Amino acid sequence: MPLATRPLLFFIIFASSLLIARVQAKVHHHKWEISYQFKSPDCLKKLAVTINGQTPGPTIYATEGDTVVIEVKNSLLTENVAIHWHGIRQIGTPWMDGTEGVTQCPILPGDTFVYRFLVDQAGTYIYHAHYGMQRSAGLNGMIVVKVPDGFKEPFTYDHEHSILLNDWWHNSTYEQAAGLALPGKQFTWVGEPHSLLINGRGKFNCSLNVGGTCNSTNPECAPYMLTVVPGKTYRLRIASVTSLSALNFEIEGHSLTVVEADGHYVDPFVVKNLNIYSGETYSVILKADQDPTRNYWLASNVVSRKPGTPTGTGILHYYGVPRGRLPTNAPPVGPLWNDTMYRFNQSVAIHAHPSFIESPPSKSDRMINLLNTQNRVNGVMRWSINNVSFDLPHTPYLIALKNNLNNVFEQRPPPDTYDVKSYDIFIPPVNPNATRSNSIYKLEYGSVVDVILQNANTLTANNSETHPWHLHGHDFWVLGYGLGKFDPASDPKRYNLKNPILKNTVVVHPLGWTAIRFKADNPGVWAFHCHIESHFFMGMGIVFEEGVEKLGQLPKFIMGCGESKLGN
């Protein structure tokens, strides 16, 4: 074929494919009512935030290129609502990201808000509340985006199942938030969860007599049962919406092959159990190749914090075995909770699949070095980034920036780095005091940005916590992990530029660092924060702005709070 005709042929093929995709794309309509209902997910009855009476909420199914429309009515009576579509990049629709204070005003009690967005990338995702600490109360669920017809994934399976992991408290999120905001010795930590849930089901020990109605025979808390046919192969889409806990997920007697992370194909590797952090999603391949005359445990265990919560369990049920027959062994207890190297090594094992590598830019235009520390502000315990503890404004940033409302948030930019040479990450902060601010990082549109997430010792000696960080509106390349303090001179030379995985959520290990790179090419305002609910509530987050001037007029229905009220 003459070279001159190849570009024309390519254009014809591309245009034809695009036309076919548009013809095949569907619009999926959902109608949700958000309300409080009494639920017993771990056998103890308590109020939960539900979607159409359910927690977790219904799974959203779509195919890459489809549009999802969700009509949300807030029937909570006394609480606002906003729902974030975690992992959906919202290209061209930043006002649909569902982040109160950043991209929209909250949905007031009695009001209805319609979310409408394109799912542009196949994969496993989640949705959850993004108002206060509401996610912890039960407003969450999964999003499954299938590949288009004719696309061949780099693995095969016979059937698939989704598994949503969560932690659960009996006290309300109001109580938790109030305790976190108290000064000095009145400060009350949320504590370890009472139960771990697998697809919304757990088992609290009713004999502990903690008060309230606890019924161990309630069908709502019967263990989740995953039925498999002997000899078949299954794709398990696993997601974590925990509010605090890092988890280790294991299926007794079966190995798991990791094949997808946050919507991107992984160079497959086999694990006995999977470490999964809040906000992360994975696909693993399970082969039903063990003794088919018995059932096996599904087990969820807390790691990286000293566990105060029993193992969360479900049942892998081999078809033909009585469904009510419990496994004969004790549930797996997982790795040692404080084995940081075990978890670190699993993190560094995740690389892009050889056939699906999207190479990162060879260098960045800007490096932002973020030190995570625990501090006090006016006697109140807070988390800070470069000694600045984050607050959300009353007027969402997207609305304020587009309408030049410069008075609604602090205009002085937050610091790009900290005193790298002298700060000792291995001891509590010498100066525990920090400041509070709602200022944001303004990025040059189209630029390449490196972010270094640096962990440190908390206010308690010999203690450093695990932090999963989630970036809205983007996927980023994970360039590297390290233990100790990041060295700006030497550590970038060890970056993985060959086959880094793309993700939207990444962990920072205790006393360690994580380096990511992304393109600031999605016009909007995007939150970047620790996905532990209480940590973000206490200030561990920042916000990026990029290319807002390229957006058209914002829809009126996202307004109505702060300076965006009618008449202001």
UniProtKB/TrEMBL annotation:
Residues 1-25 form the signal peptide. Its cofactor is Cu cation. It holds the Pfam family Cu-oxidase_2. The keyword Oxidoreductase applies. This is L-ascorbate oxidase. It catalyses: 4 L-ascorbate + O2 = 4 monodehydro-L-ascorbate radical + 2 H2O. The keyword Oxidoreductase applies. One of its GO terms (molecular function) is copper ion binding.
